[in-house]
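Recall the central idea of this unit: under ordinary conditions, the amino acid sequence of a chain determines the structure it adopts. In this exercise we apply that idea directly, starting from the sequence alone.
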Amino acid sequence: MVAAATVPLIKPRLGILAGRGRFPVLVSSSARDMGHNPYIVAIEGEADQDWSGFDHCVLGIGDVAGLSALIRREKIGTLMLAGGIDRRPRFRDIRPTWSSLAAAPSLLRTLLSGGDDQILRAAIGLLEKQGVQVVGAQTVAPGLLSQIGPLGKLEPRPSDQADIAAAEQAALALGQLDVGQGAVSVGGRVIALEGLEGTDLMLERVAGLRAAGRLPRGRGGVLVKMCKPEQDERADLPSIGPDTVTNAHAAGLSGIAVEAGRTLVLERELVVTLANRLGVFVTGLGPDDERGKR
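Accordingly, the structure predicted from this sequence is:
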């Protein structure tokens, strides 16, 4: 968990750049509970929730000029990014400000050849040039971060530890390449890595392997999600939710392990209810020396 002393002060007004999924709603509601009046910038073609209960607008994914005008008009001092983005902005989508034109060539190179984390860092840099501070969604919703140990009734069995160790190392190696954040191990062997398709489609592939008899019988397996080694924690933290539990069960896995303090658990109560009902463990991983003591 982020220490209280290191949590940045949110400068009024708070703006939330909302992508797809329920995560932006959870963050916005948490911010409101903390006394903020967040302004929601729903990303066109990505945001898929009803924002009628909040001050909001819809902007194109590369509309820097529109965002800059909005920041001035609404006196936004802090921005956070929340929710998924399925597509990369095309260069023709970008409407720069005069001050951001100098960054256009390097931004184009990043869009064409950069990994997800490189693109997010470039986006954060552009936002900061608008005079706002960019903070992680966990600043207003720290309760979404996973903690060390099991979330539900079930814990990893001794036989699951080899799968956790193998998938963790694979996820970290994958993150080093700025490709994905998750891996699946069955019988101590890594059998799936998360690519651009995301966790749910990776789990569908595992379910297909299971149905085709390509995986060892009687071996469950584990999904592990880890932060990328160079992850900017202000955006794109690993996350799991109810669908992750359902899909892990459909893939025949025994459980899910995530990096504690750096992974978001969305709709935690439903995650725990589903995990208990389906017989899937969900656990938070601490440092290696702490895991070895359990």
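Residues 14 and 36 are 7 Å apart (CA to CA).
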